[in-house]
Amino acid sequence: PTPPRRMPSRSAALGSFLSLAAIPFPLFWEISGTETRSYALVSLLVLLEAMLPFFLVFESRKPQARELVTIAVMCALAVAGRVVIQIPNFKLICAVVMLTGIAFGAEAGFMTGAVSAFASNFFFAQGPWTPWQMLAYGGCGMIMGFLFRKGKLARKPLLMGILGFALVMCFAGPLLDTCTVFLAPITLNWKNILALYISGFPVNMSQGLCTFAVLFL
Q1: Among residues 1, 32, 190, 194, which is most buried (max CB within 10 A)?
Q2: Burial tier of 122 (Cβ tally within 10 Å: 0-12, 13-18, 19+)
Q3: ∠ at Cα 48 (43, 54), nearest 5°?
Q4: b/e per residue 76-101 (b: at least 16 CB within 10 A)
């Protein structure tokens, strides 16, 4: 029988609340500043504050060894799916993370996505884009975990593939394009921002088709 799930501790709940409550402060600091605006730094602070509650809640549950081993194995598969496949913008990492969320729940999906994004960047490059990728991949696993929890949706390959494609196109892809907007050495105006999002569409389409194919198969 499956052991009862431990509820998050009060300290984790308080830490999560304080982390989320702190999000407006870097935004206010940026808006009220009179010097050169550091969009990249502010976006990085907001992302870290947004992700911290997930790690606090997961840690406070004191997950069992078998759950940690499962997540570690899925992280290894996700990293391999990003590193070993040499086709540009056609990586298996999103699909593996989503499958983890479907099979083992939203928390496992988020942890697998966040950790695998961080780990795989040791093969590529770490930088201010890493938290964006952690949130994008982790969010995909978490959302799929919520959608399929307790049999709310049938685990049919076609449905999983369609939802995976939609998540890449509507969530992960636009989020990573937003990262490009903040980190690109350009003047932030609507013309340049729109050009970056348009240039990212073929990349998102390629990754979305890869995710659909893996989930369907």
Answers
A1: 194
A2: exposed
A3: 140
A4: ebbbebbbeeeeeeebbbbbbbbbbb
CA–CA gap between residue 43 and residue 54 (Å, rounded): 18
Report the alpha-carbon distance of residue 149 to residue 25 in Å, rounded.
Answer: 34
Number of other residues whose CB lies within 10 A of the CB of residue 3: 8
Burial tier of 148 (Cβ tally within 10 Å: 0-12, 13-18, 19+): buried
Hunting for tokens 């729109």 — which residue is that? 194
Q: Which residue has the tokens 């952690």?
A: 134
Interatomic CA distance for residues 197 and 193, integer angstroms: 6
- Measured CA to CA, the distance from residue 90 to residue 204 in angstroms comes to 9
Integer CA distances (angstroms), 178 to 2, 30, 128, 149, 189, in order: 40, 17, 12, 29, 13
Phi and psi at residue 19, to the nearest 5°: -65, -45
pLDDT of residue 204: 96
CA angle 15, 136, 201 (to 5 degrees): 155
Determine whether 74 is exposed, middle or buried from the number of CB atoms within 10 Å of its CB (0-12, 13-18, 19+): buried
pLDDT band at 217 (very low <50, low <70, confident <90, very high): very high
| Stated pTM of the model | 0.77
